[in-house]
User: What shape does this take?
Amino acid sequence: MLAYVSRRLLVSVVVLLLATILVFLLVANSGDPLALLKTNPHISPLVVAAREHLLHLNDPLYQRYWIWFSHAIRGDLGTSITGQNVASEATSHLFVTMRMVILATVIAIFLAVFVGMYAAVHQDRFSDHAATLANFLFLAAPTFVIGLLLKEFVAIPVNQHLGHTLFYTNGEQSPTLSGPFLSRLPDYAAHTVLPTLTLVLVSYSSWAIYQRSSMLETLDNDYVRMARAKGLSPRRVLIRHVLRNALIPVVTVVALDFAAVLGGALVTEIVFGWQGLGQWFFTGVTDLDVNIVLAFLLITATFVILFNLLADILYAFLDPRIRYA
Amino acid sequence: MTSPSLEFEDLEVDFPTKDGIVRAVRGVSCSLESGQVLGIVGESGSGKSVTALAAMGLLPRNAIVRGSVRFKGRELLGLKEKEYSDVRGTGIGMIFQDPMTSLNPVYSIGWQIAEAVRAHQSVSKEEALLEAVRLLKTVGIPNPEDRVTDYPHEFSGGMRQRVVIAIAMANNPDVILADEPTTALDVTVQAQVLASLKLALTETHAALLLITHDLGVIAGLADRVLVMYAGRSVEMGSVDDIFYRPAMPYTHGLLGSLPRLDSDGSERLRPIPGSPPANAGEHQGCPFAPRCPRRAAICEEQEPELTLVPGPEGAEPHRAACHFAEEVSQAEPGKLFAISSGDPEAGPVR
Amino acid sequence: MPDDTSLSEAETTGSQEVGQHSLPMPPPGGHLSPLDEHGMTGDAKSQARIVLGRFFHQRLAVIGVCTFATLGVSALLVGIFWTYSYTDITNNLNTPPSWSDPFGTNSIGSDMFSLVMHGTIKDIQIALLVAAMATLVGSTIGAVAGFYRGWVDSLLMRLVDLILVVPILAVLIVLAHIVAKQANNWFFLAIIIGALSWTYVARLVRADFLSLRERDFVEASRALGASNTRLIVRHMLPNAIGPILVNATITVAQSIVLESTLSFLGLGIQAPDVSLGLLVSQGQDSATTEWWLFVFPVVFLVILILSIFLMGDGLREAFDPKKVKTRA
Assistant: This one.
C-alpha cells in the first residue's frame, strides 16, 4: 500500500510540475500585465520599471519560471502585480473557499446518498420518478443559473417579505464585522446559506443519480437475497448489506469529483461576490497575474491529487477484495 | 394430526413482462413432513426455484402469487417483510445455487454467520462468533478458528457453499430449502457439500426441500420426489416410484438421459428431443406433448391432472399427470424414448 | 512494484466519473452492449433496431429527443422566417412580452425571442463541434492506449492526468481569456472546450479495449492475420460504440454548461454575437424588474441541457438494459 501510494504521489508531482510549466507559458505569453499601469499618466515610468524588475518581467521566460519554481518549493509564491504576498493572500482566500466547499460537500454527500437510496427503494413509483427528474434538473442547470435563481427569486423576495436581510447575496461576511467569534456566527450563516446551497445542488445531483443506479445494481445481488433469507430486519438488510456495498463506487466517484466541486465553487464565488480562491483566481487571469494563477493551480491541483489518492485508499478500505501491493 | 412442516396448495406465480404474463408456476400442491427430504426435479425454467422463493417471500416485487404456502399451519403468502423475519432463518433456512455470489464480499465469514445467529438469538457478539466457529467445524471447514476472520473471496466455491449451509442451519430451522446447492460446483466438490448438507440435517433434524436437476443427488438424499415440468407438478411419489415405476413420459426422459453405472456400457443415453415450452400458460393440452413419444390426440386438447397411479399394496400414494399414466408406468424406466442419433432437434420417433 | 491487475482495476473504476457533471456510467467491462453478446456475428442493422426500440420505450428519453428536436428546428426556422433578426435594433425599449415580441425586448430594443433562439442555435453549434472533436480525439487516444498498452498507454494516461489535475473550468478560463478577443470566437471556444473534454471518453474506450483485446473474437481475428489497424477499427471499435455514443451525447450537454458558464463570466461568446449564457449574464440585473430578459434565456438554457442529458441517459439505458427480473 505504502509503495503504491508513494509511486502515485511521485507521478502526480511530475504531472503537477508539467501543468505549472504549461500554465506559466500560457499566461506569461498572453500579454503585458502592466499595460494598464503604463497608460496611466499619473504613474511615473520609474515606478513601472521598478515593478517590472520586481516581477522579473524583463527576464527570459525560462529564467522567470525557474525563479518562480525555486521560490515556490520553499513556500514562497512570489508577489502579485499589485505587490501583495501571494502565499498569504492565497491562505486567506483558501479559508473562505473551504468554508463553503467543506460544508457543501458534506451536505451534498448525505443528500445524494439519501435521495439515491430513497429513489432506488421506491423504484418506478411516483417518488422515484419525481426524485430522478429533480436530479436531472439540477444536473442540467449550470452553477451560475442555480446561484442567480436563488439570489433573485429566493433571497430578494424573502428579504423583502421579512423586511430585513435574512439572506445576504454579496460577500462571505459583512465588511464591518468584528467582535468575538460566537457573535459573528449569525452573520457568517446569513452569508453562507445560499452559496452553500448552490454548491450543494450542483454537486449532489450526479452523485444521487449514481447512488440510485449503484443501489439498484446492488439490490439485484444474490447476497442481498441471502441476507433477507437469514431473517434480518428489512432495515438491516438495506443499511448493512445494500447501502454498504452500493457506497463503494459512490465514495470513489465523490472523491474524484472534487475538481468539479472546486470548479462549481469558483462560479458560486463570482455569483455571490465571495472573496475566495476562485474569485481571486479569476481576477488573476484577467489581470494576467501569473503568480496568482500559478498559486491557484498549485493549491487546487494538490487537493485534486490528494483526493484521487484518497479515492484509491477508501476503495481498498471499503472493499476487502482490493489490495494494492 | 399435526400439520406438515411446509405445505404448498395450488401455488401459482405469474410474472408480468412487456410481452405479456409469464406463468412460472401453475398450481403446485405438495407437502413436506418434518424430518423428510422432498426432492423437486425439473429442467431449468420449470418453476422449481420460483416455488422455493415463493415460500421464502423472496420473489421479485412484480411477481403475482396465488394459492397458499403454509409453514406449520401458518399462512406465509401475504406476510409483510417485517413479519417474515421470524420465519426466515429460524423457521426456514435457505441455501442458494451460486455460492460465489451469495455471500456478501465485504464482510468476513464469521461476521456473516454471527449476524444470522444474532438475528434470532440474544447472544453477545463474542458468543455469536464462537457459535460461528462451531458451525464452521460442523460443516467441515478445516481450521475454523483461523478461517472465521477470512473474507468470502479467500474461500473456494465448495467452502463458500458450506458456509452458506452453516448460515442456513445457524438457528436450527425446521425446514431447509436448498435451491440447486451443488449445481455451480465442481463434480469433485459436490459430494463434500452434500455430506455437509447431510450433517446439517442430522444436527438440526430439519426437513429438506431439495431442488435440483440432478437425479443422482435426489437418489442419494430424497424420501419423496416431485417432478415439475412447465410450471406444474407432473409426477409425485416415493423415490422408488419415480426411479422404478415412473408414470409420466417426462420422468422416463429424465431417467433415460442419466448415465448409469450399473449398465453394461453398451447402452446409449436417450435424450429428450426438443426443448420445454417458453410460456406454458398460452397453449392448451399437455405441455409435454410436443416432445412426447406416447403422444395421442387427447394430449393436444386436454392438459392431464395429477391422478393416482396404481402401485404395490401399502405404498405411499404415487400420482402422475398423464393420460396414459398406468400404461407408461409399466414401461421399463428410461427406455420409453428412442435412442436418437444425438441430434437434439430431432423429433420423436413415431 | 504495484500489482498491475489491482492497480488497473482501481484506475478504471476511478477513471469513470471525472469531470464536470459526469453522468453515472456502469463500470467498463460490467456492461454488455448488444454487439458484445453476439461478438462479430451480430447483424449491425438489427442490433441498431433493438437499441433504438429500447431507446424509444423510455418516456423521458422520448421527451428529451422531442424537446431537443423541437428546440433546434424551431430555432433554425425562427432565424429564417421571424420578423426580427437578433441584430435588429428598434425603438421598443424594454417592452414586456407581447404578440409582436413574444419574449419582450431588451434595453436597446432587440427582440428577445430572436435573441434567445439565436443563442440556442449558437449553443448547439458549439456543443456539437465540441462533442465531435472530443469523441474523435478521445476514442483514438483511448483505443491506442488500450490496444498497445505498455509505455504508450502510460504516456497517454499521464496526459489525461495532466488535464484532470486542475478543475477544467479553471483551465478554460485561462484559455478563454486568450481567445475571447478573437473575432467570431465561437470556433475557438469550441476548440478549447473540445481540447479539454476528450479525457473522459479516452479513459472509457481504453478500459473497454483493455478487456476487448482479451476476447476470443479479437484473438481469432489476430490469429487470422488481421492488421492492428483493422483489429482496432473493424473489430474493437464497433464493440465499444455504445459507451462512445452515450458519452458523446453527455459531452454535448456538458459543453453547453461550460460554454454558457464562460459566456456568463464574460470570457465566452462576445456581443454582438449571442449565446444563452451571455443573455443570462446580461439579464441578471433586471431579473426582478424586466424579468423577461432573464427568465427566457434561463428556461431555454436549462431545458436545452436537460433534454440532452435525458437523451444520454436513455441511450445508456438502451445500450445497457438492466436485467429484467422475471424468472428467478
Remarks:
- Chain B has two domains: 6-222, 226-346.
- The mean pLDDT of chain B is 85.
- The domain at 226-346 of chain B is CATH 3.40.50.300 (Rossmann fold).
